[in-house]
Design goal:
With 89 residues, this protein is of the alpha+beta class. The chain has four helices and two strands. Helix content is 43%, strand content 13%.
Length: 89
């Protein structure tokens, strides 16, 4: 069994990444979304701790700059602000 360090170096062998984006996908169902539940903070919206740990480990072992995009939080924030209505593009 490989350690994290060994696996990371195996995956990145011969490659150099300047930047990496880790995405925390929404954890709620858009089909079953309830604006009232969102307004009452009824949906999971905790920081993506696992991705934060992965970011710290990758940045400690490489020269890669890692960014986390928390789509779960951003979607809930936008849906609450917009009243749950879809936007015209």
């Amino acid at each position: 069994m490989l350690t994290f360090r060994q696996e990371l170096h195996r995956l990145m062998a011969g490659r150099r990444f300047e930047r990496m984006t880790l995405i925390h996908c929404p954890t709620f169902s858009f089909d079953a979304f309830s604006l009232e539940t969102a307004r009452n903070c009824g949906y999971y919206a905790y920081p993506p701790v696992g991705l934060q740990c992965l970011k710290a480990a990758v940045e400690a072992e490489t020269e890669t700059k890692v960014e986390i995009v928390d789509l779960n939080f951003l979607c809930l924030q936008r849906l609450k602000a917009d009243g749950g209505e879809p936007r015209e593009t």
